[in-house]
Amino acid sequence: MSATSRRSALTSRLRRLTRLSGLPVRRRLAYAVAALTAVVLAGVGVTLYGVESGRIDEDADESLSHQLDHLETVRDENDLDTGRPYASSDRLVAAFLEQSLAGHNEDLYAVFSNGERAVQGDSNPDLERSGRFWPLVDAMRDDGGVRDLEVGDETYRVAVKPVSIDDTTAALVAVHNLSADREGLRALVLNYAALAVLAVLVVAALSSRIAGSLLRPVRNLRDTALQISAGDVGRRMRVTGNDDLADLQRTFNAMLDRLDAALTAQRRLLDDAGHELRTPLTVLRGHLEVLDPTDPQDVDDTRRLLLDEVDRMTRLVEDLLLLAKARRTDFVQPHPADVAAITHGVVARARGLGDRQWVVDAVAETTALLDEQRIVQALLQLTDNAVRHTGPGDEIGVGSAVVDGRLELWVRDTGPGVEPQLRDRLFERFSRGADDDDRFGLGLGLSIVEAIATAHDGAVALDDTETGATVRLRLPLKETS
Description:
Blueprint: H1 3-21, H2 25-76, H3 89-99, E1 106-111, E2 117-119, H4 125-128, H5 133-140, E3 145-151, E4 154-165, E5 168-177, H6 178-214, H7 216-229, H8 244-290, H9 296-325, E6 335-338, H10 339-350, E7 357-360, E8 367-370, H11 372-388, E9 395-403, E10 406-413, H12 420-423, H13 445-455, E11 459-462, E12 469-476
Parallel strand pairs: 7-9
Antiparallel strand pairs: 1-2, 1-5, 3-4, 4-5, 6-8, 9-10, 10-12, 11-12
Helix pairs in contact: 2-3, 2-6, 8-9, 10-11, 11-13
């Protein structure tokens, strides 16, 4: 085959595969199973034919060998007519034909020393008139042997055994019709082929039905994904069974839950951020509209006010970016940190936040896997919150301890505490008390604290106290050696 022909054949096969790949998965699976079944059944059929054909050849050889061996048995016996050993080879082969019976699909011939021939029972005219049988016998008459002979559509196995007595040589010819023996095998193979085709069709139909049932969750997954693309994020798959596809459904539903939660949080963030940014932008616009450019004092006052609003918006954007970054896996980078040093360091830094009585409540003498900078950031945010809700001379305490196998770090104050109606939503974004105004922050500080605790696989909680407020970071204790 030339290179052009090979390329053409390869191109043709690729086109067929491309057309097949465009079929539905259900049909492709049915075709694949049917093709595999057909290949297996064809292999079984070919193997069966080969084994049975070999057995037929062995039976034919055994039958012919039995006839030739029987000739030697007859020769060792006496002539039944005279009671003495056989006088000539002609008499021996003639007596053999009289005493023996040809097997199934066999013919027995005798070729006498004078060239005459005899057959046991009815002759086979197709074989004898073929013009090839007797020349083959004559060629084998002296040395004997076994050969196959093709006559038309028939195959014969011819065995010749020469016999010599008193200078006379005759021959026994045993012929076995292999094609006749194989007629039953051919009928069996044809029946097998018909049943195999029927089996392939049944397997294709059943495999298509089973594949459709197995792929139903995948179709549901596709339909659900399409509905989600259309905006129905609340759609979920109905999970059935406990197999791999059921696990896929559960995983997909869990992914949708996370996606729904993320979209909800994103919408809330955008709504809240838009609401919070609307006020300073309104302030900026209002003051610019009434600004008197000819009044230096008015220009100076408006400038200071606008810069203050810009700073507030900058702080808001930075806090929002920090909260967005909290969802990343590298938001915290834990390493061995001295908890006692963190506790004392926070108090030392916090003293500059306000004139308060700063107290170290307790110190955990341990080393834990923490992102020291993030923990310090969270604690300073809590101390800043405490300063904004207390006055000069009030007490603010910072402490750390190992409690029930976990690390706790807290900030407490002796201020007015948290309003009952605010306790449940204290750590939500833009959540502020009724008496808070913009001077006390944008309501993102405690959300940042909670994000840092969550990134450490921990949580943040507000203690139930009668006076003041105590906020705790509860983190899993990951000690280092």
